[in-house]
Design brief:
Number of helices: 24
Radius of gyration: 25 Å
Helix content: 55-70%
Strand content: 5-15%
Number of strands: 12
Structural class: alpha+beta
Distance between the termini: 61 Å
Length: 557
């Protein structure tokens, strides 16, 4: 058995997963208690994305040998992938206890602590990793990412340089260095880092998205910005669903079926596919997707009604292999609503925008709103674009979907709007580069939106485009803005994700809130450092009724 295990491990180490799986399975058929074969078979399932099977296999290995350090480490990775971070931390910590001199174990623990928001503890773990192994490029890079998140940009750059000195062709370190340089306003150097990272790893959607953001903020020509954004979207879709070229459809379907899908994501995608068909828009595989997806939705909804599954906002669904295969052609295919002709105006030309600018500049609270924000043709186009385009790639905790300017949410009209804002309100927007823009779509059943947070920009422009007839409770559905800025010394995660700490700060400073009720084509303009959150939502539960907001950020904090 020892020789057979060596052969299996050799296959595994060289990336021959099918051969390794066969070998591990044969070993277990003759020796069911072989803890190493069971653990490593679990690792293969993890590598393929089947984390539920991986969990079962590695759990059994740990039952046999509770002190199996490598199995604890890999169980940590599996649990992280399953979103069970507290349990993952337990296993990573156990691995460190069992192997205190293993640098990789400290690095793994650091990553989990970082993800959990325990930033100081994470720094300690990364520092221990590089102390034990000074040439550990990944740990240097991870340490840099942590310092960057905390706003320690010079420390972050030092870490990235250490990583690159050890590994000159380290694409991730180059990409992260580009991000830190961009934050410091060193855009030319940032672009050079991003371009080199893309040369080393042309399939890196994140790096391309960051490069595209620089193009957008640097007022690059429209064609360059749009091309980069759409390519980034394509890379994201390839990473998730493949295209039949880089991997077989059979393998991708297997991976999709072995994982799971958020119920609210599936509901949106099935509703969108039905809407496209209703508009006479045919996308490859759309009818099979509707049939299979609707069957899964019906099954999941019945399970929820029978209290066999969690509620709609937390439920995830499993796909059979046949269902995944039937749905894959549609998932692999992009679709964008195209402009035949850019509307003459993005902003409503009947509004005196200089007067609106003065209203904001003279406001004590730096909060205002303007109705009839977009020109009618522009409003109609944005509405159609958001309903038709398959660009909603990001999933959020409160069951809403996002799409970003550097990942496909872009067109000549998106950029024209930013240009007109700078032209019509030059004092307010002229000195501040466009940082990013995005759209969010909400599931009406849940009545929730964005949690309280602040943003990384100077000025926040938010406008709504869903028709008013779908809002069931006039006076709600809008935005609540608190009239105190987030502390300057808070890092991004603190002012963007730490809900309890934010509410404590708001209470301590006796902040007053301004609630702007929802109205279609209403724009809210405010200091981006102000804490803000979505008001309660009461919209119809149909696809066209999904509340959609679009946000533009200008300048830096």
């Amino acid at each position: 058995m020892a020789k057979a295990l060596q052969v299996a491990v050799r296959h595994h180490g060289r990336g021959r997963l099918n051969e390794a799986e066969t070998a591990y399975t044969r070993i277990l058929a003759h020796d069911p208690d072989n803890v190493h074969a069971r653990h490593l078979l679990g690792v293969i399932h993890h590598q393929r994305g089947d984390n539920i099977a991986a969990y079962d296999l590695i759990s059994k290995a740990l039952e046999t040998d509770p002190r199996y350090a490598d199995a604890h480490g890999n169980m940590g990775h599996v649990l992280t992938a399953l979103g069970r971070l507290d349990e993952a931390l337990h296993h990573f910590t156990t691995q460190v206890v069992l192997e205190p001199t293993l640098a990789e174990a400290h690095n793994n623990l650091g990553q989990a602590l970082h993800q959990a928001g325990r930033l100081t503890d994470a720094i300690d773990s990364y520092q221990m990793a590089v102390t034990l192994k000074p040439n550990f490029a990944e740990a240097h890079c991870n340490n840099g990412a942590l310092h960057q998140e905390m706003g320690h940009l010079n420390d972050a750059l030092a870490c990235y340089r250490n990583a690159l000195q050890l590994r000159p062709n380290y694409a991730e370190a180059l990409s992260r260095m580009g991000s830190a340089l961009a934050q410091l306003g060193q855009n030319d150097e940032a672009v050079a880092c991003y371009q080199e990272a893309m040369r080393l790893n042309p399939m890196d959607a994140t790096t391309l998205a960051n490069l595209t953001s620089l193009y957008i903020s640097g007022n690059a020509d429209t064609e360059t910005a749009i091309e980069g954004s759409l390519r980034s979207l394509k890379l994201l879709q390839l990473a998730r669903y493949g295209d039949g070229a880089t991997d077989s459809n059979d393998t991708i379907a297997s991976r999709l079926s072995s994982g799971d899908m958020a119920l609210f994501r599936l509901k949106h995608d099935v509703e969108q596919a039905g809407y496209l068909l209703g508009q006479g828009i045919e996308v490859p595989g759309i009818r099979d997707f509707c049939d299979s997806g609707q069957g899964i939705l019906d099954r999941a909804t019945q399970a929820i009604l029978q209290k066999m599954e969690p509620s709609h906002d937390t439920a995830r669904v499993r796909l059979s292999r046949d269902e995944a295969a039937a749905m894959l052609p549609y998932l692999q295919t992009g679709h964008l609503f195209q402009l035949d002709e850019v509307p003459a105006f993005a902003l409503n030309p009947e509004i005196d925008w200089r007067a609106e600018e003065q209203k904001y500049l003279q406001s004590d609270k730096q909060i205002m709103y303007a109705d009839d924000f977009l020109a009618p043709a522009a409003l109609k186009w944005f509405q159609t674009y958001c309903l038709v385009s398959k660009v909603w790639t990001k999933e959020y905790q409160n069951s809403y979907l996002g799409s970003f300017s550097d990942q496909g949410f872009i067109s000549p009209l998106h950029l024209k709007l930013a240009s007109e804002l700078k032209e019509k309100m030059p004092t307010l927007f002229g000195a501040h580069p466009l940082r990013r823009f995005w759209g969010f779509k909400y599931d009406a059943r849940l009545g929730k939106g964005i949690n309280v947070h602040a943003d990384f920009a100077q000025i926040n422009l938010n406008f709504w485009i869903t028709p008013d007839i779908y809002n069931l409770a006039t006076g709600t559905g809008g935005l609540k803005v608190y009239d105190v800025p987030s502390p300057a010394n808070w890092h991004f995660r603190a002012y963007n994700e730490s809900k309890e700490a934010i509410y404590a700060f708001i209470a301590e400073h006796e902040a007053q809130s301004v609630t702007v009720p929802y109205r279609c084509n209403r724009a809210v303009l405010f200091n981006s450092a102000y804490f803000h959150e979505t008001d309660e939502l009461h919209f119809e539960d149909t696809y066209e009724a999904r509340r959609i907001n679009i946000t533009y950020l200008f300048g830096s904090r």
